[in-house]
């Protein structure tokens, strides 16, 4: 017994890991044991060590549970490396820094607010919210307003701008956090394509279909028009298969036969009508001008003479005028 | 903003020499699209107090039958917290420069920080590389050869004793070699990390059922075996422990090893005193009344409540008697009508 006690005191027991280590035991190297014996010795020694752990473990204060006695283990003694770095503190956002400087403190806001327009209590945010600027159906015009611009469109645009600004600020704060390696775990900052130099906007993303089309067009750039090319798995067939142009019969006839003539005439007409201002018949133009002038002068003369007017009015009142008069008399 | 831009461009135009282009890398905020995805990412984020390390088990282009069995059985031992790859991996060569990129990628994808890599070659038959990662970069490596492998199936024992999956093991190291020899000391640490399972605060004593025994038989050889624990009555609080070999058992022959970089080790060993804050629920603080806690009280089922004394009319016998009388009366009435 005494021997065993002495031995036990030599073991290092790490109860947190349920580990025991005997650093004094040596296996004989000069006279190698047979494997059987060696294993037996290992197991025997192992039993001692396991007993040592159990001695420490079962004497810990325990609480009875449905499944068995529960024991609170001490923290592990052997230090093992972490799998990931320690979480880093998040740097303050621009607003947080500003608020701290100015001494602005966070306040809790009520979830429900009085809506003045409807005279009821409504949620502060979200659908059907209180004091919603966007839900106002009529905007009163001020005398200073420019009648040309639409106040509703302006309101919409303002809102869009506010959202954009907020998004920009958010990105800026996240970038700052990324510098410290303290991005929230569910957020990633992914670099999109570089902007085309001289522009601020990011280039438009090319869709899969568009890329496929381009690939199809590029594939036809061989002598055979891509006919004998090896196709990759999943590659689209070329876009234009077969002929591009269609020649109509030149011999005149009905149906298709007349189409060729029509087509050329159409084109010709278009050209002529477009360039008609170039083809100016001076003689005709002068004559037309003169006629117009004459007509104008004549009409002016006619207006001036009272007899003409009388005749005209009489003519007009032939049908409707008499009817109207009768009606008036009846009344 | 716009005005500034135009004036600036005008100035450059006036000078007419060069145009300055500022390349601003466009950044896009990417967030988890689903709640489930977000939870998964949060699980993987660095934590103040870490949960146990996951193990990745994989093999190279060539393996032997022995090695296949070894990997499969290590996976069985660690089944609750391990990932096993079943395909060949050409690009994984942990000790060679450039051979670790693929491995680090796997570690990132599977969120594993210990890996067991098996390979077999003429120079190093039945080779196992056990390594750890820190921040998904290789931290340290130990290479061992497997000899005298005895699979689980070759041991016969009472199946009732078989250790349950995911139970916390006892780990025993025997021999001065684990302290004297640098390689073995390193191996001991890696084995402890691999085998110890989850670090728990509360342990159920009824659930203690397995032990790993590692013995440094010679300066480069470690005997490893897996045992079931049999708790026997001893008359005291502490039961008498008995080991029953359940396998697998094998010899590890130490080959190459790469200890961690000193600065990296320092970084990885960092711990903090502060404990993760637990969210305080149902507690309010009032200036006048101080701390107020709200407690949930289940619904009082008044309908089922037992009354102290039942009123006469409510009593069952009376009710039943009344009903009886009614049924008795009816036939008599009918009889009268008949006659």
Automatic annotation (TrEMBL), chain A:
It is found in: Nucleus. Its main location: nucleus. Pfam families: RRS1. It comes from the Eukaryota. Residues 287-300, 312-331 have a biased composition (Basic residues). One of its GO terms (biological process) is ribosomal large subunit biogenesis. GO terms for cellular component: nucleolus; preribosome, large subunit precursor. Keywords: Nucleus, Ribosome biogenesis. Coiled coil: none annotated. Residues 139-166, 283-331 are annotated as: Disordered. Residues 142-155, 301-311 have a biased composition (Basic and acidic residues). Involved in ribosomal large subunit assembly. Belongs to the RRS1 family. This is Ribosome biogenesis regulatory protein. It comes from Psophocarpus tetragonolobus (Winged bean).
Automatic annotation (TrEMBL), chain B:
Coiled coil: none annotated. Residues 53-263 form the Brix domain. Residues 258-290, 303-339 are annotated as: Disordered. One of its GO terms (biological process) is ribosomal large subunit assembly. Keywords: Nucleus. Residues 259-274, 317-339 have a biased composition (Basic and acidic residues). It is found in: Nucleus, Nucleolus. Belongs to the RPF2 family. This is Ribosome production factor 2 homolog. It comes from Psophocarpus tetragonolobus (Winged bean). The lineage of its organism: Eukaryota, Viridiplantae, Streptophyta, Embryophyta, Tracheophyta.
């Amino acid at each position: 017994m005494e021997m065993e006690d002495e031995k036990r005191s030599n073991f290092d027991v790490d109860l947190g890991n349920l580990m025991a280590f005997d650093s004094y035991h040596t296996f004989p190297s000069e006279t190698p044991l047979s494997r059987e014996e060696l294993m037996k010795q290992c197991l025997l020694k192992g039993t001692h060590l396991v007993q040592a752990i159990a001695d420490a473990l079962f004497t810990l204060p325990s609480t009875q549970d449905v499944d068995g006695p529960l024991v609170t283990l001490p923290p592990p003694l052997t230090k093992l490396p972490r799998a990931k770095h320690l979480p880093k503190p998040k740097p303050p956002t621009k607003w947080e820094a500003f608020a701290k400087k100015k001494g602005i403190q966070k306040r809790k806001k009520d979830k429900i607010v009085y809506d003045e327009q409807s005279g009821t209590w409504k949620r502060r945010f979200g659908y059907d919210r209180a004091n919603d600027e966007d839900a106002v159906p009529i905007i009163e015009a001020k005398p200073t307003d420019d009648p040309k611009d639409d106040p509703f469109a302006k309101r919409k645009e303002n809102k869009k701008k506010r959202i954009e600004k907020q998004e920009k600020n958010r990105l800026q704060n996240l970038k700052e956090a990324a510098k410290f390696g303290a991005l929230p775990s569910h957020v990633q900052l992914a670099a999109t394509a570089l902007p085309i130099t001289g522009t601020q906007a990011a280039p438009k993303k090319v869709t899969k279909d568009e890329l496929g089309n381009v690939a199809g067009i590029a594939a036809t750039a061989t002598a055979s028009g891509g006919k004998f090319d090896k196709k990759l798995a999943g590659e689209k067939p070329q876009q234009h298969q077969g002929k591009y142009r269609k020649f109509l019969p030149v011999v005149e006839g009905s149906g298709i036969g007349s189409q060729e003539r029509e087509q050329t005439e159409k084109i010709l007409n278009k050209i002529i009508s477009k360039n008609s201002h170039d083809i100016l018949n001076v003689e005709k133009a002068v004559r037309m001008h003169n006629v117009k002038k004459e007509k104008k002068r004549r009409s002016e003369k006619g207006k001036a003479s009272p007899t003409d007017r009388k005749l005209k009015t009489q003519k007009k009142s032939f049908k409707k005028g008499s009817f109207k008069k009768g009606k008036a008399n009846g009344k | 903003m716009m005005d500034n831009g135009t004036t600036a461009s005008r100035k450059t135009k006036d000078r007419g020499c060069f145009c300055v282009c500022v390349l601003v890398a466009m950044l896009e905020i990417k967030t988890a699209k689903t709640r489930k995805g977000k939870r998964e990412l949060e699980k993987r984020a660095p934590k103040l107090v870490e949960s146990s390390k996951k193990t990745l088990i994989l093999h190279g282009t060539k393996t032997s039958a022995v090695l296949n069995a070894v990997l499969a059985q290590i996976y069985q031992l660690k089944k609750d917290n391990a990932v096993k790859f079943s395909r060949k991996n050409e690009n994984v060569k942990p000790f060679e420069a450039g051979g670790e990129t693929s491995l680090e990628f796997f570690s990132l994808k599977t969120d594993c920080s210990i890996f067991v890599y098996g390979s077999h070659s003429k120079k190093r038959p039945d080779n196992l590389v056990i390594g750890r990662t820190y921040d998904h970069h290789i931290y340290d490596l130990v290479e061992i050869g497997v000899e005298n492998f005895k699979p689980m199936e070759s041991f016969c024992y009472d199946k009732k004793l078989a250790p349950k999956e995911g139970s916390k093991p006892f780990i025993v190291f025997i021999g001065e070699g684990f302290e004297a020899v640098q390689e073995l000391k390193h191996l001991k640490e890696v084995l402890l990390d691999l085998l110890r399972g989850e670090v728990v605060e509360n342990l159920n004593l009824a659930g203690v059922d397995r032990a790993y025994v590692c013995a440094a038989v010679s300066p480069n050889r470690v005997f490893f075996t897996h045992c079931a624990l049999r708790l026997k009555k001893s008359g005291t609080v502490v039961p008498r422990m008995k080991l029953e070999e359940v396998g697998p058992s094998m010899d590890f022959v130490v080959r190459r090893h790469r200890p961690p970089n000193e600065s990296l080790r320092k970084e990885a060993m960092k711990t903090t005193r502060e404990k993760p804050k637990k969210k305080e629920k149902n507690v309010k603080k009032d200036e006048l009344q101080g701390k107020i806690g709200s407690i949930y009280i289940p619904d009082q089922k008044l309908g089922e409540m037992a009354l102290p004394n039942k009123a006469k009319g409510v009593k069952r016998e009376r009710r039943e008697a009344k009903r009886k009388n009614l049924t008795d009366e009816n036939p008599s009435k009918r009889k009268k009508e008949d006659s």
